[in-house]
């Protein structure tokens, strides 16, 4: 959906959490940004409608982890942001592996949640401090080695630059930038760690120490100010 979601009709968001006070708080946070409209609120995942741009999902509903439901929603192309008080490494990794596009800890507050929503709706990666810490500390015996040109192309692409802008900055053609990104995807697929989306690629690059989360500065600054 890309930038058109933000420019044309705003972002429709669903919230699933079994604590009414959390739902009320999140609704208040989101209502402060005119680009966001809450279109669905529930305490279970059974009736999540189609067509939401982003779903904010508590990982623990009624005392039960809903990783299977998260995977089912992600499989139908629903963008899911997990919003959880559980921030252990295994939990963060499990949520991302199940298909969450972002992980936001409940103590990370409004700014990170709103930025994650806007970035997810625009199919742009966003990394919170919690997720960055987990990904950067996770040992990978199957790390992928990228060339410096491949790493640079990925980094500038992650920084919300278009591939054409990356090409101009690198002094190469857009086709060459596409080749760098495609080559990186092939390397991850060959290592058994496929990265079909931009968010997947960013997570892999942070896991392997190829990119630092604090280098991805364009996303939070672009998403922080309502239009």
From TrEMBL:
UniProt superkingdom: Bacteria
Keyword set, alphabetical order: DNA-binding, Phosphoprotein, Transcription, Transcription regulation
Domain Response regulatory as annotated: residue spans: 12-121
SMART domains: HTH_LUXR (SM00421), REC (SM00448)
In-chain residues carrying the UniProt-annotated modification 4-aspartylphosphate: 58
Transcription regulation listed as a keyword: yes
SUPFAM superfamilies given in the database record: C-terminal effector domain of the bipartite response regulators (SSF46894), CheY-like (SSF52172)
Ligase listed as a keyword: no
Matching PANTHER family: DNA-BINDING TRANSCRIPTIONAL ACTIVATOR DEVR_DOSR
Protein name: Response regulator
Source organism (scientific name): Actinomadura yumaensis
């Amino acid at each position: 959906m890309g930038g058109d979601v933000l420019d044309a009709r705003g972002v429709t968001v669903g919230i699933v959490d079994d604590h009414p006070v959390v739902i009320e708080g999140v609704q208040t946070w989101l209502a402060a940004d005119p680009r966001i409209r809450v279109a669905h609120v529930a305490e279970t995942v059974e009736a999540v409608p189609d067509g939401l741009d982003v779903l904010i999902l508590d990982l623990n509903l009624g005392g039960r982890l809903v990783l299977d439901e998260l995977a089912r929603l992600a499989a139908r192309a629903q963008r899911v942001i997990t919003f959880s008080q559980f921030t252990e490494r295994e939990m963060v990794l499990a949520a991302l592996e199940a298909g969450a596009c972002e992980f936001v800890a409940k103590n990370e507050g409004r700014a990170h949640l709103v930025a994650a929503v806007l970035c997810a709706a625009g199919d742009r990666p966003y990394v919170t401090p919690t997720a960055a810490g987990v990904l950067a500390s996770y040992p990978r015996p199957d790390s992928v080695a990228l060339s410096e040109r491949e790493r640079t192309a990925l980094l500038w692409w992650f920084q919300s630059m278009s591939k054409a802008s990356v090409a101009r900055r690198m002094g190469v053609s857009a086709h060459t930038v596409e080749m760098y990104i495609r080559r990186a995807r092939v390397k991850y697929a060959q290592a058994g760690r496929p990265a079909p989306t931009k968010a997947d690629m960013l997570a892999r690059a942070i896991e392997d120490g190829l990119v630092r989360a604090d280098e991805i500065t364009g996303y939070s600054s672009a998403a922080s100010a309502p239009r």
